[in-house]
């Protein structure tokens, strides 16, 4: 294979006023034709800057190449003028970015955006370009491509849009595709579809892919070669096997280790102290009305549909499911941030739905929340001590000195320097900010914490430290958690039990290890198979769940999952399965649970 | 379609509301109309007769309902001053004011767009600095002062353009600039900021990555985004221009609704005041309705979100 792209001693600086801050130092990387190379690293490690330098887009974002060469087809991109590069951009090297929702101009139709790009690079008529675009959409398996062409980006789902963005990048048969975190904003099931699509396109078109990701397992799934970036340099590169089986550099070792640590649940039954049930939900439902036209019946999104569950003292209940499955709404119902339409929520055996204001306040004191976005959850104009101390001012009558004392105590508890209480949120890193959020949540010694994607925005290494902190707090304070996340491995690591949600219903609930090793619901199994893994022997022998989660406005009749289920029968299409207990603490809502069948076969 | 209809309904409500408000304010103002109209040294009896003739002796609510009923028949009453129908007086003065506000709007939009784009393209360069200072001056200088300055420079010193009157195109130039320059300043600043903001949208990076040229990105993609806040602003500027026309028409001795209002207030010619304000309110409402409808053309997201 010939070398397509050669990056030699590349250094890139970002201009800050008069200074140039080095962002990438002496990077060397080769990409051969037809090869998929993954750049892996945490946020701020220089992955994206490197990719922007290859297209020289860095010039537009306040950066400049301070040294080195980028040889592409005997030309040094680093020394070309902007004008000369426009013949390469989009034509020979194309790019797909992270968030498909923002990668397309929202005010133009999909078709118009295709026509613009195609006609920029090829002298064809508008209608020829239109037809070509339809073929491209077919190539990325978009259903009904002709009608999609007339739609605007916001009418398509994230997964569809990422396919559109990939098709758009393919418009001129580029030789190199730069994909910057193309699956990070997507659900695992859709991520698996997109990864498969990229592999398929590589095989068909023979193009090379520079794939940027912070997600080790994704790299393990798709890459031929992996380069690990840390603080602006490539610290190690090699084949997938070399990197994941025998990491050399300490940073790679930490990364691989923190990923491996997630793969077994360390929250085993033994370290849970109590059998006492703290919080219980019985058949709770919540629907949101849609904006409707006059004279038409009101339509609803059934976000949570007759869910029952319980959480014991000191226990973590994980909730997983694709976006739109109702995880977050369920979480909010449990802590009374939203009022359930029907059903009961029992806190320590007492019904708290429709309680008085005082009862609500008491409940809020004992049930706290931590959300995903570490920054917007903290008032940027308040000092840390004011933020963390606020619950005390609301719920207690402590004096200023007492509050300060408690704040310092709790800062220590979340492993932050007590002296940092006088600083402002922006002075902290993402992981530290989440510790501040956690500190605020636990200062009243609550019994229950809702953690809604609380570690999802953090880098892998930081993530595992925050998880460790959460586990430690759970043991010390006897906290119960509901842990919502789309990353399955993290949920496995922290949860005692896990509930799988699909279109507002819990379809399976089981102890973490059992759920991961012997899923009973076909949907659970599909989710697990879609989950990328660094276990190299297991990969690429799975079937990918096809299609997307149906609209919760019009959920399929019978078992909601039947439209995507390979085992669905007539019964599944007409009759919704009830939650049935299996052995132990397991329950599943499926007419043909995998667990049972396998069990029956074993018995014969 | 339903949307447009409901907008019309709201517009009618706003106009009726402003009619009512003006009716109340004018009638609460101190000073007896009949006394004022009859003049000094007139016997009380004559004043009373006049009051009866004008229907001012009736209860306020009857006067109000009578007035509103008249509106629906296209009858805005008769002027106290010269007994002409109010509608005729208004229509006579409408043309010049429309010509003034529309040409001022053109000045504001054209100047604002060009300077705003230049300012954003040459961000933090010398040209940007000059434009930003100029637009600040434009925004913060009162209309009448700019008008007086323009007359002094172009009429008195340079003898290039006429300073007063209406009728010819030349006579429209100075007042339009005088009235439009504030709007131009506002639009310049707005366009500059929205262009710079839109340039940071992630899809702009994707477009560059696809090899789309600089100009196409600026004029086709960025500008369309930048126009959305600017269009809102145009609706508001139009209202300010209608208010500003009162002063500008006085400074440039032009005929128009603004002058008509000023004169009518002097003479306490209530039907004229009410009629003129009704006209102005109607304009303002119509323009803003057009603005609201035009969003939906510029930004499909607004249309789609209602589905």
From TrEMBL, chain A:
Residue stretches making up the ABC transporter domain: 5-256, 279-528
Gene3D superfamilies, sorted: P-loop containing nucleotide triphosphate hydrolases
Keyword annotations: ATP-binding, Nucleotide-binding, Transport
Domain of life: Bacteria
InterPro entries reported for this sequence: AAA+_ATPase, ABC_transp_ATP-bind, ABC_transporter-like_ATP-bd, ABC_transporter-like_CS, Oligopep_ABC_C, P-loop_NTPase
A molecular function (GO) term: ATP hydrolysis activity
Entries under PROSITE patterns matching the protein: ABC_TRANSPORTER_1, ABC_TRANSPORTER_2
Pfam families, per the entry: ABC_tran, oligo_HPY
Biological processes annotated in GO: peptide transport; transmembrane transport
UniProt record similarity statement: Belongs to the ABC transporter superfamily.
Protein name: Glutathione transport system ATP-binding protein
Automatic annotation (TrEMBL), chain B:
Keyword vocabulary terms for this entry: Cell membrane, Membrane, Transmembrane, Transmembrane helix, Transport
Domain ABC transmembrane type-1, residue spans: 94-295
Subcellular location: Cell membrane
Predominant cellular place of this UniProt entry's protein: membrane
Membrane topology (UniProt): Multi-pass membrane protein
Family: Belongs to the binding-protein-dependent transport system permease family.
BP-aspect Gene Ontology terms: transmembrane transport
Gene3D superfamilies per the UniProt record, alphabetical: MetI-like
Matches recorded under Pfam families: BPD_transp_1, BPD_transp_1_N
InterPro entries membership: BPD_transp_1_N (IPR045621), MetI-like (IPR000515), MetI-like_sf (IPR035906)
Transmembrane segments: 7-29, 98-121, 133-160, 172-191, 227-252, 272-291
GO CC field: plasma membrane
Record's protein name: Peptide/nickel transport system permease protein
């Amino acid at each position: 294979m010939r070398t397509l792209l050669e990056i030699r001693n590349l250094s890139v600086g970002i201009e800050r006023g008069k200074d140039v801050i080095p962002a990438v130092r002496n990077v060397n990387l080769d990409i051969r034709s037809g090869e998929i190379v993954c750049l892996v690293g945490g946020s701020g490690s220089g992955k994206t800057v490197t990719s922007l330098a290859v297209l020289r887009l860095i010039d537009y974002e306040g950066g400049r190449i301070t040294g080195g060469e980028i040889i592409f087809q005997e030309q040094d991109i680093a020394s070309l003028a902007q004008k000369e590069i426009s013949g390469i951009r989009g034509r020979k090297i194309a790019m797909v970015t992270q968030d498909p929702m923002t990668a397309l101009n929202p005010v133009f139709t999909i078709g118009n955006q295709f026509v613009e790009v195609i006609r920029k690079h090829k002298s064809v008529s508008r209608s020829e370009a239109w037809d070509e675009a339809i073929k491209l959409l077919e190539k990325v398996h978009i259903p009904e491509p002709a009608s999609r062409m007339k739609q605007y980006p916001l009418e398509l789902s994230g997964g569809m849009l990422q396919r559109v963005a990939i098709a758009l990048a393919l418009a001129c048969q580029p030789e190199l595709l730069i994909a910057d975190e193309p699956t990070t904003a997507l659900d695992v099931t859709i991520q698996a579809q997109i990864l498969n699509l990229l592999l398929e396109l590589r095989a068909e078109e023979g193009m090379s892919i520079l794939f940027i990701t912070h997600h080790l397992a994704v790299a393990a799934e798709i890459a031929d070669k992996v380069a690990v970036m840390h603080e602006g340099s490539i610290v190690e590169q090699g084949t997938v096997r070399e990197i994941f089986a025998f990491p050399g550099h300490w940073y790679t070792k930490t990364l691989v280790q923190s990923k491996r640590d997630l793969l077994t649940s360390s929250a085993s039954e033994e370290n849970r102290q109590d059998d006492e049930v703290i919080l219980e939900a019985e058949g709770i439902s919540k629907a949101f009305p849609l904006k409707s036209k006059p004279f038409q019946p009101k339509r609803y999104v059934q976000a949570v549909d007759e869910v029952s569950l319980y959480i014991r003292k000191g226990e973590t209940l994980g909730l997983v499911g694709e976006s739109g499955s109702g995880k977050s709404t369920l979480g909010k119902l449990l802590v009374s941030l939203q009022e359930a339409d029907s059903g009961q929520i029992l806190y320590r055996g007492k019904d708290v739905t429709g309680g008085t204001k005082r009862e609500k306040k008491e409940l809020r004191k004992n049930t706290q929340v931590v959300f995903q976005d570490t920054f917007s959850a903290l008032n940027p104009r308040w000092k840390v001590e004011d933020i963390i101390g606020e619950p005390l001012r609301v719920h207690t009558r402590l004096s200023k000195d007492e509050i300060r004392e408690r704040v310092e105590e709790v800062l220590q508890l979340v492993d932050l320097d007590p002296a940092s209480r006088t600083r402002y949120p922006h002075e902290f890193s993402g992981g530290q900010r989440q510790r501040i959020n956690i500190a605020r949540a636990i200062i009243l010694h609550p019994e229950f914490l809702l953690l809604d994607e609380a570690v999802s925005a953090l880098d892998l290494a930081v993530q595992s430290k925050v998880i460790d902190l959460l586990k430690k707090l759970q043991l010390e304070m006897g906290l119960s958690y509901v842990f919502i996340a789309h990353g399955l491995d993290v949920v496995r690591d922290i949860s005692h039990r896990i509930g799988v949600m699909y279109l507002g219903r819990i379809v399976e609930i089981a102890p973490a290890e059992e759920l991961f090793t012997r899923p009973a619901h076909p949907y659970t199994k599909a989710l697990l198979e879609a989950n990328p893994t660094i276990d190299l022997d297991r990969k690429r022998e799975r079937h990918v769940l096809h299609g997307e989660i149906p609209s919760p406005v019009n959920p399929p009749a019978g078992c909601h999952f039947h439209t995507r289920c390979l085992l669905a029968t007539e019964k599944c299409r007409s009759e919704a399965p009830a939650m049935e207990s299996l052995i132990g603490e397991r329950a599943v809502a499926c007419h043909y649970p995998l667990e049972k069948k396998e069990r029956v076969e074993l018995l014969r | 379609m339903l949307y447009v209809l409901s907008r019309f309904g709201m517009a009618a409500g706003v106009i009726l509301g402003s009619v009512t408000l003006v009716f109340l304010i004018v009638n609460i103002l101190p000073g007896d109309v009949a006394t004022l109209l009859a003049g000094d040294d007139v016997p009380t009896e004559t004043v009373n007769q006049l009051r009866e003739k004008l229907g001012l002796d009736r209860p306020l609510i009857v006067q109000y309902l009578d007035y509103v009923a008249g509106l629906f028949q296209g009858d805005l009453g008769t002027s106290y001053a010269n007994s002409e129908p109010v509608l005729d007086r208004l229509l006579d003065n409408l043309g010049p004011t429309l010509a003034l506000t529309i040409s001022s709007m053109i000045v504001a939009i054209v100047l604002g767009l060009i300077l705003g784009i230049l300012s954003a393209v040459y961000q933090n360069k010398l040209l940007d600095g000059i434009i930003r200072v100029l637009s600040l001056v434009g925004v913060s200088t009162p209309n009448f002062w700019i008008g007086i300055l323009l007359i002094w420079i172009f009429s008195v010193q340079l003898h290039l353009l006429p300073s007063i009157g209406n009728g010819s195109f030349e006579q429209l130039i100075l007042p339009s600039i005088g009235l439009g320059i504030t709007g131009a300043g506002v639009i310049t600043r707005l366009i500059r900021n929205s262009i710079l903001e839109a340039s940071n949208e992630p899809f702009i990076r994707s477009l560059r990555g696809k090899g789309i040229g600089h100009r196409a990105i600026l004029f086709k993609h960025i500008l369309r985004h930048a126009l959305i806040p600017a269009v809102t602003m145009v609706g508001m500027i139009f209202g300010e221009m209608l208010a500003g026309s009162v002063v500008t028409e006085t400074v440039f001795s032009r005929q128009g609704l603004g002058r008509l209002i000023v004169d009518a207030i002097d003479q306490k010619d209530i039907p004229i005041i009410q009629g003129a304000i009704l006209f102005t309110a109607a304009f303002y409402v119509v323009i803003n309705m057009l603005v609201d409808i035009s969003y939906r053309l510029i930004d499909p997201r607004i249309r789609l979100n209602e589905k």
